[in-house]
């Protein structure tokens, strides 16, 4: 039993004792509810007030029994309260309730399953880009560390029913499964989530090609292999170091604040049915659209200044984060460009 549970039990016992004492005095002495309650409280608190009314023999025995039981119960309650406060359990409890309310209000957030090596690197990147997220982790010590960083988290195993629901899976935009060393658990999470949420973006981590194939069959939208990506970067550092430097710039590794962004043109957007040149001239773009995937298409195409954007087209844009944010806000507006 946890300290919080023991504290709850002691409070319950106190309430039962107060209720029982009040009812006892009312039945034995025939007093009113208020007098019976007052007598019970001063008896349990041992403050030494005189009795409300004279007690008969039965009332005296009842009071002695109430004192014996009450002193033990009150002492237990004080001990559990002290333990709870000194060890920080009460603060953690209220902090946990606050965290639950925060998660309940979240929508279109990303759920990160696992806070191991990959998860611990992924979460700060999400935080830096302002993407809302919730971490699901089964290790209590790790969850404590996560909460100390002020990240929202749910304690539990993502394979267990209800844990992902507690993290808001029904309202989320994506699920990141970073359990690279626990293939069976990762595959189960991917498969069960895909069954319940067929349109959800699910990205998983794999250490090898066999695991990648399993996760794709289980329903993952994408599978990322850190080892394969790392090997590609090593070769690029050897053969194309300048290109690698450019990639570091747009990924934000050098602190310049440039990034790639993938955006979808909303229907009725002011960008719809206008060329890139026209939009750039009217809105003073300082970013560049480097690829377009037409709505319903599978492949990206390299655009020209005369390329026309249509509703639901996907575009890849490179620029500063502030500029891309401005473009996103413009793109979401309806009507004619002005």
TrEMBL record:
<dbReference type="InterPro" id="IPR006037">
    <property type="entry name" value="RCK_C"/>
</dbReference>
<protein>
    <submittedName>
        <fullName>Putative potassium channel protein, TrkA</fullName>
    </submittedName>
</protein>
<dbReference type="Pfam" id="PF07885">
    <property type="entry name" value="Ion_trans_2"/>
</dbReference>
<dbReference type="GO" id="GO:0008324">
    <property type="term" value="F:monoatomic cation transmembrane transporter activity"/>
</dbReference>
<dbReference type="InterPro" id="IPR050721">
    <property type="entry name" value="Trk_Ktr_HKT_K-transport"/>
</dbReference>
<keyword id="KW-1133">Transmembrane helix</keyword>
<dbReference type="InterPro" id="IPR036291">
    <property type="entry name" value="NAD(P)-bd_dom_sf"/>
</dbReference>
<feature type="transmembrane region" description="Helical">
    <location>
        <begin position="59"/>
        <end position="79"/>
    </location>
</feature>
<keyword id="KW-0407">Ion channel</keyword>
<dbReference type="GO" id="GO:0005886">
    <property type="term" value="C:plasma membrane"/>
</dbReference>
<dbReference type="InterPro" id="IPR003148">
    <property type="entry name" value="RCK_N"/>
</dbReference>
<feature type="domain" description="RCK N-terminal">
    <location>
        <begin position="107"/>
        <end position="225"/>
    </location>
</feature>
<feature type="transmembrane region" description="Helical">
    <location>
        <begin position="34"/>
        <end position="52"/>
    </location>
</feature>
<dbReference type="InterPro" id="IPR013099">
    <property type="entry name" value="K_chnl_dom"/>
</dbReference>
<dbReference type="Pfam" id="PF02080">
    <property type="entry name" value="TrkA_C"/>
</dbReference>
<dbReference type="InterPro" id="IPR036721">
    <property type="entry name" value="RCK_C_sf"/>
</dbReference>
<dbReference type="GO" id="GO:0006813">
    <property type="term" value="P:potassium ion transport"/>
</dbReference>
<keyword id="KW-0812">Transmembrane</keyword>
<keyword id="KW-0406">Ion transport</keyword>
<feature type="domain" description="RCK C-terminal">
    <location>
        <begin position="247"/>
        <end position="333"/>
    </location>
</feature>
<keyword id="KW-0813">Transport</keyword>
<keyword id="KW-0472">Membrane</keyword>
<dbReference type="Pfam" id="PF02254">
    <property type="entry name" value="TrkA_N"/>
</dbReference>
């Amino acid at each position: 039993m946890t300290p919080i549970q023991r504290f709850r039990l002691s409070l319950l016992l106190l309430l039962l004792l107060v209720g029982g004492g009040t009812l006892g005095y009312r039945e034995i002495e025939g007093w009113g509810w208020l007098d019976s309650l007052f007598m019970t409280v001063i008896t349990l608190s041992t403050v030494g007030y005189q009795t409300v009314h004279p007690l008969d023999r039965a009332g005296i025995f009842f009071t002695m029994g109430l004192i014996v039981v009450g002193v033990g119960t009150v002492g237990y309650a004080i001990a559990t309260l002290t333990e709870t406060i000194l060890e920080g359990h009460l603060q953690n409890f209220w902090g946990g309730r606050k965290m639950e309310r925060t998660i309940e209000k979240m929508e279109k957030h990303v759920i990160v399953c696992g806070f191991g090596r990959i998860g611990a690197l992924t979460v700060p990147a999400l935080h830096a880009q302002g993407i809302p997220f919730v971490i699901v982790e089964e290790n209590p010590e790790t969850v404590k560390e996560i909460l100390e960083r002020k990240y929202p988290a749910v304690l539990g195993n993502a394979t267990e029913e209800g844990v992902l629901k507690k993290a808001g899976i029904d309202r989320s935009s994506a699920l990141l499964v970073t359990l690279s060393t626990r293939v069976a658990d990762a595959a189960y999470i991917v498969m069960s989530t895909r069954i319940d949420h067929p349109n959800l973006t699910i990205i998983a981590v794999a250490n090898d090609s066999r695991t990648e194939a399993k996760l794709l069959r289980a329903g993952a939208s994408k599978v990322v292999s850190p080892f394969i990506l790392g090997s590609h970067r090593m070769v690029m550092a050897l053969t194309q170091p300048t290109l690698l430097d450019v990639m570091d710039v747009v990924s934000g590794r050098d602190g310049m604040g440039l990034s790639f962004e993938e955006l979808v043109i909303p229907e009725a957007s002011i960008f719809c049915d206008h060329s890139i040149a026209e939009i750039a001239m009217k809105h003073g773009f300082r970013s560049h659209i480097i690829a377009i995937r037409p709505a319903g298409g599978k492949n990206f195409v390299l655009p020209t200044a005369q390329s026309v954007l249509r509703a639901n087209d996907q575009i890849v844009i490179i620029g500063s984060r502030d500029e891309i944010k401005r473009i996103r806000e413009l793109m979401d507006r309806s009507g004619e460009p002005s």
